[in-house]
User: Fold this.
Amino acid sequence: MKAGKQTETTNQKRFFTPENYAKEQSQRMHSTRGPLLIASLSAGEYLAEAVVNKYTRHLKAQGSEDNILYLEGIDRRFSDCEACVRLKHHVNGYDAFLFQALFNPNLPFSIDENYLSFLIAARALREHGAKHITGILPYLAYSRQDKPTAFKREPITAKLMADLSITAGLDQLISWAPHCGQIRGFYGSMHVDFLDPLILFMEEFSDFKNREDVIVVAPDVGASKFATHFGRAMNINTAIASKYRPQPEKVVISEIIGDFSNKKIAVILDDMISNAGTVYALCKKLITEQNIKEVHIGVSHNLCVGKGSERLQDLYKNFALKQVIVTDSIPQTAGLRELPFVKVLSLADSLSRTINRVHYNKSVSEVFYTPQ
Ligand code: R5P
Assistant:
């Protein structure tokens, strides 16, 4: 939605009165939250652009000629690497949705740098008059640091990130399957939508529904609730692994609790793969000790750092790993996309529908309906 020169001049000269303002409002077809604006920081552009394209296609399919104001790549860096955000269009009264990929392995910036750019952008929108600011962080970094651990004197960093988001001026947050739902409470009264991946994995693994030879396995207690929901919805058995980390990057699966009689296929569901130590240990144990013949993995976020890719490839070659289903909550590297057993699902359509719901004050859970 770009203003032409003539419209710009007309707007500059315009003086608002109660009458012409009321007339203008009655002719507008905006949501009560204001006109829609999608803004993206550079790291989040890959997804924001896909969402804008989906949204526009949905509008066109419904016969609408509406256009979305899309501000892309609103951040830059000074030569000392300090982040700077500039908005090329006014944002007064807009319903703004701000995209950022906190972890982007295809760009040279760290999670911390990406987080700070996001906070600065939220502040820019706030200071320059956006009516609502909704942050879209598909991968909510730091959500794993939501509680004290066995390691010494760690802070609850997920709470600090929430405090910073509130201070920056965010009104609402949308994220995809963060490490745990309870951190919603860290955001106080802020409206937070954590989108549920259950439907997505049910569709992807629909061939396993009602199968007596299939079992879903949670790699740890944290993942057990989601795995149990999935098992119930799919009418298959659930098992829970007992996992501990003697050191931060080392994983031990001491036992797996569940009934493995006649089970041939295991589906491992987790929120994320980081170094792949968890799925590596679990997959090997399932193959060597539980007589499982094939393993399928579904994770919401694939960071695949350190030895991650190497471990997944070893599982594929030597331990009957058949497929790894991930999403583009984190942009996947070309190397990962090329692996024959990795399938990357795009969140673009789900997010375009979510934005549409939020923009028109409708229920988001209708898009992410969870079977009971
Ligand atoms: C831990 O609680 C998480 O749910 C994941 O299981 C963990 O972050 C995966 O990390 P990694 O792939 O490095 O084992």
